Automatic annotation (TrEMBL):
<protein>
    <submittedName>
        <fullName>PAS domain-containing protein</fullName>
    </submittedName>
</protein>
<dbReference type="InterPro" id="IPR035965">
    <property type="entry name" value="PAS-like_dom_sf"/>
</dbReference>
<dbReference type="InterPro" id="IPR013656">
    <property type="entry name" value="PAS_4"/>
</dbReference>
<dbReference type="InterPro" id="IPR000014">
    <property type="entry name" value="PAS"/>
</dbReference>
<dbReference type="GO" id="GO:0016020">
    <property type="term" value="C:membrane"/>
</dbReference>
<feature type="domain" description="HAMP">
    <location>
        <begin position="19"/>
        <end position="72"/>
    </location>
</feature>
<dbReference type="InterPro" id="IPR052155">
    <property type="entry name" value="Biofilm_reg_signaling"/>
</dbReference>
<dbReference type="Pfam" id="PF08448">
    <property type="entry name" value="PAS_4"/>
</dbReference>
<dbReference type="InterPro" id="IPR003660">
    <property type="entry name" value="HAMP_dom"/>
</dbReference>
<feature type="domain" description="PAS">
    <location>
        <begin position="226"/>
        <end position="297"/>
    </location>
</feature>
<dbReference type="GO" id="GO:0007165">
    <property type="term" value="P:signal transduction"/>
</dbReference>
<dbReference type="Pfam" id="PF00672">
    <property type="entry name" value="HAMP"/>
</dbReference>
<dbReference type="Pfam" id="PF12860">
    <property type="entry name" value="PAS_7"/>
</dbReference>
Length: 349
């Protein structure tokens, strides 16, 4: 009897062991397989047990958490790699744009017809374009890092500077310190005229643009001489020359002959309209002739009119008219060349 009971208990023990241990181990094994397969969100069974099965379950849970952390770190590393690659691509693209802009700027500066030089606060050369050394015939040794004093010493040797080098450098450094822009012209010993523009730069530096304006000044002198020559002729011809601003109909010029014909000084005439100087009838005639000129562009054939002069009475005049400029230009003028024929008409009668 006792043997039968023992046998039954042994059987029950096997069943219990199979259900409580072997089954639990199988479930934990399955959970481990799922975790190994990448399912790091899988639940681990039997965590609430306090026996060996519970300790094993908690060990598997720790394994699951470690795998999950590894996956998380791999994702972060992958994201970081993508971000790093994207940043490197953006940096390369920015560098390409920067180098292209730098090349364009350098090419633009070197293609300037003017000479350009940049100085730091101590009057040392930061940069200069190709035309600057050409203007002053400087050697190749003058480049970034050279000083303004060295440049001037070379100009002294070549006869292109005759001033006091120390005083000139001191004056430039003072302007740099005060950040005062400047513009002036210098005459070189070889007859050239150089226009110099100086401006402060951010950070205490200085930029100077220097332009050879010799031909421009020569043309200006020739033009000024021609203007004086033409002014002398216009002022002394026997015909009256009258110029009027076509936009507002105000007189802007009369020569001596016109002053005499009208009987007023140019100070009394210039800036006024015909209606301010002449009778209503005479002003209407003048305005009508102006409208005809506006339509015809020019009236080179003389037109004979009888007009009431405010100081000399009725006069017979012959007038030719031309337009200078166009309606959209500031210099749009009507020019009238007037001859007083009153005396000739009286003599002929």
């Amino acid at each position: 009897m006792l043997g039968l009971v023992a046998l039954i208990l042994a059987g029950l023990n096997v069943v219990v062991m199979r259900s409580s241990v072997v089954g639990a181990l199988a479930e934990i094994t399955q959970a481990t397989d799922r975790i190994a397969g990448g399912d790091v969100k899988s639940e681990v069974p039997h965590l609430h047990r306090y026996d060996e099965i519970g300790r094993l379950a908690r060990a598997v849970q720790n394994f699951r958490d470690a795998v999950a952390r590894i996956f998380e770190l791999e994702e972060i590393e992958l994201g970081t790699a993508h971000a790093r690659d994207a940043a490197m691509t953006e940096r390369d693209r920015f560098n390409d744009k920067y180098l292209a802009k730098k090349w364009q700027l350098s090419a633009a500066i070197d293609s300037m017809p003017q000479g350009l030089i940049m100085l730091d606060s101590k009057a040392a050369v930061v940069a200069m374009n190709a035309n600057y050394p050409r203007i002053y015939d400087l050697p190749e040794t003058i480049q970034a890092g050279s000083t303004l004093e060295e440049i001037l010493q070379h100009r002294v040797k070549s006869g292109l500077f005759s001033g006091d080098v120390a005083k000139y450098v001191a004056a430039v450094r003072e302007r740099i310190a005060k950040r005062e822009p400047a513009a002036n012209e210098i005459s070189l010993n070889d007859g050239r005229t150089i226009k110099i523009y100086e401006r402060p730069m951010d950070g205490g530096g200085w930029v100077s643009v220097q332009e050879d304006v010799t031909e421009q000044r020569q043309r200006e002198r020739i033009l000024e001489g021609m203007e004086r020559f033409l002014a002398t002729i216009i002022e002394n011809v026997t015909e009256g020359i009258i110029a009027k601003d076509a936009r507002n109909q105000r007189y802007v010029f009369v020569n001596k002959a016109a002053e005499k014909m009208i009987g007023m000084s140019r100070g009394e005439i210039i800036g006024k309209t015909a209606r301010e100087l002449f009778s209503a009838e005479a002003a209407e005639l003048i305005e009508r002739r102006d409208q005809q000129l506006l339509a015809q562009k020019q009236q080179l054939e003389p037109i004979i009119d009888t007009i009431d002069n405010p100081t000399r009475g009725r006069r017979v005049i012959s007038a030719r008219r031309v337009q200078i400029g166009g309606a959209s230009e500031e210099s749009h003028m009507f020019v009238t060349m007037v001859e007083d024929r009153t005396e000739k008409m009286v003599a002929a009668a």
